[in-house]
Design goal:
elongated; six-stranded parallel sheet; alpha/beta; single chain; 2 domains; six-stranded mixed sheet; Alpha/beta knot; about 30% helix; Ribosomal Protein L25, Chain P
Length: about 230
């Protein structure tokens, strides 16, 4: 069944904007067809299209169930701003693997200084629909490296996959039983030694993802896979 993001309107759900365009112009759905609606909460709303208007459609709610695809833990990704092609990979894949929130930050080796908010918002919606999550992932405005360090104190554990780390062991005790988990990942140029030491000083658990140097988007996927498995996310 197709999934769309909308908003509650009295006892119905209204679909508008790009989501309505997809329903009406791309899929050419009609009144009476059934869909799953999400309104950015913990539930899936099983609905029927009751009215197609010019700029929106109205859904009547037939059944409400808790969305099982939402993560069990609060996993937050702190990603050094990468090149655009890596950015476009990191956002959807990290959402599919259970990230709750994303911070991009500037650093010494940052090249790309900004992103297009509208494009990112659409990537978030598309990824959440793909993996059947009912709550949208928040992608924050870009912060400085120093601000990122300040944020790290808010988590039960901070994981730091680092290409220059000689310890190849990922200790499963890092994440077992932890509910608030931060992950700090560099971009394609990596961290300078001073930055890496600062992350470790602020509580980062430094570990290696193996003897091969990974692209930054691959490092995100590898780390999130380990965290997802061992934290039961």
């Amino acid at each position: 069944m197709r999934r769309f993001f909308g908003r509650m309107l009295k006892n119905n759900i209204i679909i508008e904007g790009n989501e309505f365009f997809h329903i009406s112009k791309v899929l050419r759905m009609k009144e009476g067809e059934e869909v799953i609606a999400s309104i950015n909460d913990e539930n899936d709303y099983y609905c029927k299209i009751t009215k197609m208007n010019k700029d929106n459609c109205i859904l009547s709610i037939e059944k409400i169930e808790k969305c099982l695809a939402n993560p069990n833990n609060n996993i937050v990704l702190f990603q050094m701003m990468p090149k655009k092609e890596y950015l476009d990979s990191i956002i959807p894949k990290s959402i599919e693997l259970g990230v709750n929130e994303i911070y991009f930050f500037k650093s010494k080796y940052t090249i790309l200084k900004d992103f297009k908010r509208e494009r990112v918002n659409q990537q978030v919606i598309s990824a959440c629909k793909q993996c059947e999550r009912s709550k949208l992932v928040k992608v924050n405005d870009i912060i400085t490296f120093e601000k990122m360090l300040e944020q790290l104190q808010n988590y039960d554990v901070v994981l730091f996959p680092y290409e220059n780390e000689t310890n190849f062991t990922f200790d499963t005790n890092y994440v077992q039983g932890k509910k608030n988990i931060a992950i700090v990942v560099g971009n394609e140029a990596g961290f300078c030694e001073e930055e890496a030491n600062a992350i470790i000083k602020h509580g980062g658990k430094s570990f290696s993802l193996g003897k091969r140097i990974l692209r930054c988007d691959t490092a995100v996927l590898a780390t999130l896979t380990l965290v997802g498995i061992f934290s039961n996310n």
